[in-house]
Amino acid sequence: MSNTETGSDTMDVESLSEKYREPFLQSIPHRVEEKHHGPKNFYNYTAKDQEIIREVCVNNGINFNRVFNDDQSLEVLEMFFSGFPQMIGLNHFPNLQSLTIIGQSIQRIEGLTILQNLQQLWLCECEITKIENIDHLKKLKKLYLYSNQIKKIENIKTLNNLEVLWLNNNHIENIENISTLWKLSELNLAENRIRIIGHCLDANTHLREVNLSGNPITSLKDITNLVRLPKLVNISFKDPQYEASPVSILCNYSTHVLYHLPYIQRLDTFDVSIQHLAEIAESTVSKKKMYYNMRMKAIHCNLSSVKNRLEKYRDLLLEFPQKRILNLVNTIKELEREEEIQVMSADINSETESERDAKFLKNITENTGTKSIVQKTQELKKRRKQWEKKCVEIGRSCLEAVDRVVYQSENLINRLIIELETGGNVRFEDGSAIDTWFSSCQDLVLSRFCAADYREKGIVGIKIHQIVRIHHRLLRIQFDNKLEDMTEDKNTEDFLSTKPTCFKKNLEYLFWMWNPSSVGGLKEPYQVLEEGFSDADTYQVNGI
Predict the structure, then answer these.
(1) What letter does residue 258 receive in the DSSP assignment?
(2) Separation between Cα atoms, residue 39 and residue 104, nearest integer Å
(3) How far apart, in whole angstroms, are the C-alpha atoms of residue 533 and residue 202?
């Protein structure tokens, strides 16, 4: 036990028996106190905290006695997998430039106030639920917070020197609060709950690497938002280290990315820097664009032709009513002139009584004629109003017909745009009576109609003019997977013979009709086609 008496730090504590080990550990601070006139700030810690700090020293080869004498030479500190359940004692290492804590049960970020020189911070595979108490680390360049329980990106707006940010394997739903990180060059948000990219990364123009694998991103159109990152060279939606994002299993995914981001060098960890690949993608997309543009031009030409025919037909229908109105106007004018003449012929300046009697008899006769003229004029005016009303109805019917044609043309164009932007993963098929699925849909709709429900409104039946079949690859895959999970028996082994095969016959069909005045308005059907239905809470909030 001579090593203990001399205060040597090389004593093998593990070699001591359990009987003497604890008293020995407790005696170390007292002997240090005797030698160094008392360890600085040592007694501010509980026995448990002292044990944690001692564990940190052992793992990093640090002289425990020097910790409480403000040894400021240490720049790198690491703790892996156990022994550091709480971030304490870090204030004794003010010159730390790299701090790594992995696999601990830490739930809160704290104790970093004095680490003003910190450049790298690893707090990974812990139980952290919130990003906090790091906004003062102005020199921080790399921040790794992966494999925690973080739900929101926050409290990092002031980290202007941050270049690397890893937040993968968390519970983050939105990309937010990083627009001020203008030096950010590497961003890893894989295995989160992000559904939309949008314009969240527009301000981070120095980004070179972005990893969004394992997020429920479903839209190829959404990926095109990354074109506003001019320095982007590495993008991943299907990194082998993580699950694949749904968008990466769509048809023409790689072609779409390479066409819109021709300057990238790696896609899903694969080298795509070969110029030939970008040229093939550009050629393929250009041909598709040309095809769809031709179809859109054909729709516009057909629309102009139909509008011209409708206008000619309208003029033809208006020809007869307008002639009738013209004749009536002329007749009314003649009657009005005749009425004026009769009124002017009346002479009320007669002086003798006999002349006044004669004029009186004449006025009676003339008034009778004037009344008949007035009645004829009124009848003719009524008839003119009827013909004018007829003309208005014809014009209104023509405008309604034009509006219907324009609406149908716009729908066709919107369908083509959706097909093009989704890379063919959404397709529309117009049905006809010879198609089996057309008859099935028609019978299904007619079987659900009940005339008694609409009797008060005078509706006795419905007629189906058109049925369009929609092929949506991603929604179909999601539906099949969900249906398989619901029908799978968890208590049996995964053999083909035990899986149900007739569940599709038991499916019930639900009918959905959008309300133009709520949620997505008239555009909601197209939003459903691209993104699927909104969740139940959204519909409930809007009273649906």
Answers:
(1) H
(2) 28
(3) 28
203 touches 179 (CB < 8 A): yes
Please, what's the b/e burial string for 467-489 (b: 16 or more CB within 10 A of its CB; e: otherwise)?
beeeebbbbeeeeeeeeeeeeee
Amino acid letter, 420: L
> Does pLDDT of 313 surpass 90?
yes
* Contact status, residue 216 vs residue 192, Cβ threshold 8 Å: no
Largest interatomic CA distance in the chain: 165
Which phi and psi (to 5°) does residue 503 adopt? -65, -25
User: 240: how many CB neighbours lie within 10 A of its CB?
Assistant: 11
CA 438 to CA 430: how far, in whole Å?
9
Burial class (CB in 10 A: 0-12, 13-18, 19+), 307: middle
Tens digits of per-residue pLDDT, 238-279? 999 999 999 999 989 999 999 999 999 999 999 998 888 888
Whole-number Å distance between alpha carbons of 143 and 254: 30
CA gap 161, 182 in Å, rounded: 8
Task: Give burial (CB, 10 Å; 0-12/13-18/19+) of 308.
Answer: exposed
DSSP characters over 227-256? GG-TT--EEESS-TTSPPPGGGGSTTHHHH
pLDDT of residue 358: 55
Q: How many CB atoms lie within 10 A of CB 289?
A: 12
Closest to 65 (Cα-Cα) out of 2, 1, 11:
11
Q: How far apart are CA 472 and CA 531, in angstroms?
A: 10
Q: How many residues does the chain have?
A: 544
Using DSSP, state whether 271 is helix, strand or coil: strand
3-state secondary structure of 318: helix
Please indicate, yes or no, whether the overall pTM of this predicted structure exceeds 0.85. no
Question: 133: helix, coil or strand?
Answer: coil
Mean of the pLDDT values across residues 95-100?
Answer: 92
pLDDT tens-digit profile of 314-325? 999 999 999 999
- Helix 275-344 with 353-421: angle, nearest 10 deg: 170
- The mean pLDDT value for 406-410 works out to 91
Calpha distance 503→56 (Å, rounded): 58
What residues are paired with 98 via a beta bridge? 76, 120
- H helical segments located in 18-100: 18-36, 47-60, 64-67
pLDDT tens-digit map of 151-189: 999 999 999 999 999 999 999 999 999 999 999 999 999
Identify which of 138-147, 369-378, 465-474 has the greatest average pLDDT.
138-147
Domains, the chain, ordered by start: 287-424 (1.10.287), 431-506 (no CATH), 508-544 (no CATH)
Query: If residue 355 lies in a helix (H) or strand (E), which one and from where to where?
Result: helix 353-421
- Rounded Cα distance between 238 and 267, Å, is 8
Tell me the two tokens of residue 109.
């970020």
pLDDT at 397: 93
Q: How confident is the model at residue 511 (pLDDT cuts 50, 70, 90)?
A: confident
Q: Which helix (H) or strand (E) holds 386?
A: helix 353-421
